[in-house]
Design a protein that fits this description.
By secondary structure, the protein is α/β, with parallel strands linked by helices. It contains seven helices and five strands; from the N terminus they run H-E-E-H-E-H-H-E-E-H-H-H. It has one domain (5-113). Helix 6 runs antiparallel to helix 7 (134-143).
């Protein structure tokens, strides 16, 4: 975590315009493949307001949406932030990035599967979703890797 994480979160929540947010991340190492992967993710972050890193919200809002759905095999963080965004809309609040406090994220999946693996992974995930077999895809990538 960045040394200013809690100060940035406090500032974001104190504004009153924030229902929840995240700090964003930087990679623990970089390569061309990882930088392009990162760049491909930025438009969806800008368009949705949903980010990664240290995710934060108020306890009452966490409880109001039922927290994380731990029965989901993947994207529980996305669903969590979508629920918070819906909750905040009714109050004129939005998802924000806590500026200046990016977390350093692990590159273990890139280390394991290669620096360019994400581009093939997107198509694999889509193919499995269309077949209604997202569980085996999630299991193979997140829960039973080639370690």
């Amino acid at each position: 975590m960045h040394p200013q994480t809690f100060a940035a979160i406090d500032q974001a929540l104190a504004s009153g315009r924030c229902v929840a947010g995240a700090t964003g991340v930087t990679m623990e190492r970089w390569s061309v493949g990882m930088a392009l992967t990162y760049a491909c993710m930025l438009p969806s972050i800008w368009l949705t307001g949903m980010d990664t890193g240290v995710v934060f919200c108020r306890r009452a809002d966490f409880e109001a949406i039922g927290g994380y759905d731990e029965s989901r095999l993947l994207a529980e963080d996305v669903m969590f932030l979508l629920s918070l965004r819906r909750l905040g809309r009714g109050r004129g609040q939005k998802l924000v990035r806590a500026r200046g406090a990016k977390a350093v994220t692990s590159t273990r999946k890139f280390d394991e599967f290669g620096d360019w693996h994400f581009f093939g992974l997107m198509w694999q995930g889509l193919r499995h979703q269309l077949k209604g077999d997202l569980g085996s895809f999630a299991d193979r990538y997140w829960y039973k890797p080639r370690r």
